[in-house]
């Protein structure tokens, strides 16, 4: 019989497949999930991943697989996987008839609440599992006005499709402070603030106002927040984020190769000093926040595996939590219709990233604090190898009873 870790690694591979390929689903099956009441619904802020789905149809944010791993839920009618309900529970079923039971997350209590100005809190901060919340203060990017959007990004398409339907709009600092306080009262313990591209001076002033409101509402000087920003031309402003109370900083370089950076991120190239300046900003940020407290994402699959891993290793050795979550070609982006590498490609990048992290000494807690979504394939390797999942305790309890 396979060991628990072997079963978890099988589930890990399944997660990669479901995350990359999505599922097909009939609207009637979705209605059985009780989304928006007992079960958590997706609030489309920043990015959306669902293809061939009307904006009015609710979907869950993720699957919970049998041993506790979590996979992103997104609808794609081309997928070999489909979601079914047998009258008692939910299953994902592939074209060969393989069926895997799945569950969905409970709706957080604060999703039913409003801020003092009447804004639904669920549109202010979404719950990303594992006590992590995410605030997208702006659901659109100013680079659209100059046709210099990042080619892989659909933030503006998401705003057009879901903004009015789901009431997702600009977030004000007080709204964020009140919502974070409500989420933290229910057990949340990390948040990321992010959004579309805005002018540098406006960005830093806004983030400082948000930090003030969060501290006032929660009573916490250190609220374990990540500020996700563009690389500032004036590197001295980075210290202001640390002084304001953010524990970690994110400056996402998106791709490592300088020529790809110029092609994929024309706005970031022209507005933020180019790719080399982004690297300098990351190095400077580590000097301010400390090793393991600065994060930079690369879009996994936009460049070769060797180039991606080179960037991850170089940045990690500089103290940056650099990772490359698998690219899901976003509907409405300039690269819609392109294909991400096969799941095995992403699994291999995750394994090698985890090995690099262990070599440089990054702990799970550092990776957790630095990232907006605590359910990447790399997070899972920590959870499996360090036996952090509840299923390990359950297995030990069964063995104790049997003995």
From TrEMBL:
Keywords for the protein's UniProt record, in alphabetical order: Iron, Iron-sulfur, Metal-binding, S-adenosyl-L-methionine
Cofactor(s) this protein requires: [4Fe-4S] cluster
Radical SAM core domain ranges (all copies): 127-365
InterPro entries (alphabetical): Aldolase_TIM, rSAM, rSAM_sf
Any GO MF annotation of the entry: metal ion binding
Keyword Iron applies: yes
Signal peptide: none
Protein name: Radical SAM domain-containing protein
Biological source species: Rubrivivax gelatinosus (strain NBRC 100245 / IL144)
